[in-house]
Design a protein that fits this description.
Blueprint (H helix, E strand, L loop, with lengths): L2 H17 L19 E9 L3 E10 L2 E11 L2 E8 L5 E6 L2 E6 L5 E7 L2 E10 H5 L4 E9 L6 E3 L10
Antiparallel strand pairs: 1-2, 2-3, 3-4, 5-6, 6-7, 7-8, 8-9, 9-10
Length: 163
Amino acid sequence: MSRTIRSAIANCCAIALAAAPVTTASAETPAAKPAARKTETFACMLGTEDSHARIAVELLDGRVNRFAYYSKWKPRTCSMEVARGDAFSQWLDQGATTAVVLRDELGSLWIDHGQGRVHFTFSDVDRVRYCGMEGKINGYLTIRRADPKCELQGVLERGAADD
């Protein structure tokens, strides 16, 4: 590149910089930072290798943001992952309770948030959709912070239609 071209480019850049508006640090207002959100994740399991239930929960500011439920009745498995804002569920918070309605009338859940624990109530969750077998998931599952064992009632039981 010739000295004349380099000089012309330098002059052009100097003119462009001189024409740019000058801002000072005091004139700028700092952008508001979003408040930091607290995220926690915990999981539990109860049962044997051939028959068990487990759940993993992600809390965002103390509320369930997503969960993944898995159960096994050898040789069958059941798996569902539900998250706020997904296309498969609607979430409604009311005090310490969250109602989750699954799309296409596939059941519902109530989630009770407590100190160091989350209590899930499954109500007529369709096993065909999530497990590939007849029947409904009904019952309770409680997960406690720092406890690898869940508390279960009814979730793994087979109803009359399940036999």
